[in-house]
Amino acid sequence: MKNAVSWVLVLFLTVTLLNNCLQNTTHQEIKKKQSFIDQLRIAYSSGDISKWPKPILDPSKPAFSEIGHLPKVEFPADNLYSEEKASLGRVLFYDPRLSGSNQIACASCHDPELGWTDNRKLSFGHDRQLGSRNAMTIMNVAYAKSLFWDGRAASLEDQAKMPIEDMREMHEHIDIATEKIVKIKGYESLFEKAFGDKKITKDRIAKAIATFERTVISPPSRFDRFIDGDKEIYTNDEVMGLHLFRTKAQCMNCHNSGYFSNNVFENNGTSLLSSEEEDLGQYLITKNKSDVGKFRVPTLREITKTGPWMHNGSFNTLAEVIQFYSTGNPEPYKYRSTVHDGTTLNSEKSDMLKLLDLTKEEMLQLEAFLGTLSTPVTRPAPPKLPK
Ligand code: HEC
Ligand code: HEC
């Protein structure tokens, strides 16, 4: 009997001891994790980028500049900023009379209430025809070095005429659109204030719209405030997400600078060759075989507002996008080649997309960080259209 009691006692003591040990290690691990996050928080919110941990960049040396604030916007020498020009551009941006049906304005697909996009997978335009690409935001477009997913416009001035003439978008000849604006009396004084005289030309229309677009810039986001020293504004997950973005998840190879894009064209393996949704990307413009399936690296500022995501709007949630990167997108073989105009073309996915094996927690942290790049939605009243 005595023996049995001692055995029970010994067992009890061992279990308690083990339990204590275990609790201590988890407790210590949590403490270690927390102190790591605290250190990151101090470094990243120090206001001094030289104190940040080193980023992990691909050995192929992608175009890189550190993430941070958006720099001051530069206006081109032949289209300098004036308040009058920007406000004329804003009116034109909202004016559906630039379209064939007099129903579709730039703002129809680039709506400020929807992150300056239309929040649709693919845009529809004239006669409700469906386009083949997802509408990009015009927020912060001043920092884009070329326009469109495939870079087919070199400047915002060139770009502005294209949707007007696009048969599936605004469906109007630019000269006829210009004539319609010429005939609206109320525009005369606006052009005079913006350009010094009343002459209305297609180039002036484009210049005014481009000037307006260069003023659509994000105000400081929670990210900007955090790196400026507002130390407690980030949750632990957001701090970890920022760190992962720059290190293990290697997003920084492409989404870098204050614009969160290095303006380079990259192949993410999303061109779906030989399928109905095939999109040859930059190849359509350059006809360079190595450009098949390349798209301009998009900005990640305001990213929570501009879904669905990618050139074809194929991702409904940011969680899906992060999952895609975590697997390194093992692009199915059947989508990697096509015959186009008699030429065989292959999609060569970037080597920078590789298995990252992010944990569930890390994926959530990355997503939390992406959320801090967005600013609150604004709902500006549309301008009064001249008569
Ligand atoms: C029918 C919907 C629709 C209309 C109307 C429309 N857009 Fe777009 N916009 C899009 C789509 C879709 C894209 C991406 C197209 C592509 O890459 O091929 C785009 C891309 C852009 C871009 C490129 C952004 C970047 O980051 O490269 C700019 C700038 C732009 N539009 C401005 C305008 C202006 C200015 C107007 C009016 C003159 C206009 N859009 C009218 C749907 C539209
Ligand atoms: C090799 C360069 C590269 C790397 C690395 C990269 N991206 Fe991208 N990213 C792109 C390109 C190119 C696109 C557009 C592809 C398309 O439209 O099919 C894109 C699109 C996106 C989009 C959708 C944007 C939109 O407006 O629709 C998100 C979100 C995104 N990336 C987040 C990330 C995150 C998070 C990481 C890190 C885990 C990452 N990216 C790593 C090149 C890259």
UniProtKB/TrEMBL annotation:
Domain Cytochrome c: 236-374
PROSITE patterns, sorted: CYTC
Pfam families: CCP_MauG
Cofactor binding: number and manner: Binds 2 heme groups.
Keywords (A to Z) from UniProt: Electron transport, Heme, Iron, Metal-binding, Oxidoreductase, Periplasm, Peroxidase, Signal, Transport
GO annotation, cellular component aspect: periplasmic space
Binding site residues for heme c 1: C106, C109, H110, H126
Residues binding heme c 2, per UniProt: C251, C254, H255
Cellular compartment(s): Periplasm
Pathway(s) served: One-carbon metabolism; methylamine degradation
Alphabetized GO MF terms: cytochrome-c peroxidase activity; electron transfer activity; heme binding; metal ion binding
Main location: periplasm
Cofactors: heme
PTM (free text): Binds 2 heme groups per subunit.
Signal peptide stretch: 1-20
Highest taxon of the lineage: Bacteria
Known function: Involved in methylamine metabolism. Essential for the maturation of the beta subunit of MADH, presumably via a step in the biosynthesis of tryptophan tryptophylquinone (TTQ), the cofactor of MADH.
PANTHER family per the UniProt record, alphabetical: BLL6722 PROTEIN, CYTOCHROME C PEROXIDASE-RELATED
Name the UniProt record assigns to this protein: Methylamine utilization protein MauG
Organism classification: Bacteria, Pseudomonadati, Bacteroidota, Flavobacteriia, Flavobacteriales
